[in-house]
Amino acid sequence: MSTPGIEFRQVTKRYGSGDAPLVVKGISFVVPKGTLTTILGPSGCGKTTTLRMIAGLESPTGGQILIDGEDVTRLGTSERNVSMVFQSYALFPHMDVLGNVRYGLDVSGVPREQAAQRALAALERVGLKGFDARLPSELSGGQQQRVAVARALVLEPSVLLFDEPLSNLDARLRRSMRDEIRSLQQSLGLTVAYVTHDQSEALAVSDQIIVMDAGLIAQAGTPQDLYERPASRFVAGFMGEAMLVDGTALPNGTVRVGGEGSGLCLRPPTPMSAGGAPTDVKVAVRPEAWLAGEPGADALPGTLLQCAYLGSHVELTVQTALGTLLVVSPDTQRAWPAGAALGLRLASRGVSVLRA
Question: Per CATH, is 4-237 categorized as 3.90.226.10?
Answer without folding.
Answer: no
